[in-house]
């Protein structure tokens, strides 16, 4: 039996380094895709609202900008539940809520400071770091990376 897989972490076997890397890459790819999708959905809703209300003489607002943000969260929740199950990233209640609820801070900070593709990269790093916190040997590095991203984003957003 492999020494890495025989080590226990919270009652769960720690996967081999190759398996751990594959799970981190899967989480990173999912985070990057969801970040891009969310920003594009909100941008599309804003462009639709601007285009629709361009000739309105009075106040005009469509529902799409209001629906786009909760819609992004709902899509991300479903995708994370579906993708993290085969990746073996469990317990999902420990990983998915912080991934979703705290992600807007680093993502918006990266988007406002640099641009969309930096936000996509930050989304990938954020998802991978939080997914790695499931296994004890990776908990401290994963939490450190996510805390650094969160702290940097709060500094950028509140400067």
Name its key features.
159 residues, mainly alpha, two-stranded antiparallel ribbon
Describe the structure.
With 159 residues, the chain is mostly helical. The chain has one domain (14-157). It has seven helices and two strands. Helix 5 packs across helix 7.
Strand arrangement across the biggest beta sheet: 1-2
Question: What's the number of extended β-strand segments?
Answer: 2
Q: How far is the first residue's CA from the last residue's CA?
A: 52 Å
Structural class, from secondary structure content?
A: mainly alpha
Judging from the principal axes of the Cα atoms, what is the shape? elongated
Computed Rg: 18 Å
Strand content: under 5%
Main sheet attributes: strand count, strand direction, barrel closure: 2 strands, antiparallel
* SSE sequence, one letter per element: HEEHHHHHH
How many structural units, i.e. domains? 1
Mean pLDDT: 91
Oligomer: single chain
Unreliable residue stretches: 1-9
Q: Please tally the helical runs, counting DSSP H or I stretches of 4 or more residues.
A: 7
Assign a percent range to the helix content: over 70%
């Amino acid at each position: 039996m492999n020494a890495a897989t025989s080590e226990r972490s919270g009652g769960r076997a720690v996967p081999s380094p190759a398996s751990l890397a594959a799970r981190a890459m899967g989480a990173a790819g999912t985070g990057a895709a969801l970040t891009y999708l969310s920003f594009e959905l909100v941008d599309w809703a804003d462009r639709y609202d601007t285009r629709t209300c361009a000739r309105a003489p009075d106040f005009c607002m469509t529902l799409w900008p209001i629906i786009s943000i909760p819609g992004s969260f709902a899509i991300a929740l479903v995708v994370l539940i579906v993708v993290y199950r085969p990746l073996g990233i469990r317990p999902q209640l420990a990983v998915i809520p912080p991934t979703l609820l705290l992600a807007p801070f680093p993502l918006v900070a990266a988007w406002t400071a640099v641009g969309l593709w930096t936000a996509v990269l930050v989304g990938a790093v954020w998802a991978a770091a939080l997914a790695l916190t499931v296994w004890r040997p990776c908990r401290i590095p994963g939490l450190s990376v996510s805390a650094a991203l969160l702290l940097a984003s709060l500094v950028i957003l509140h400067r």
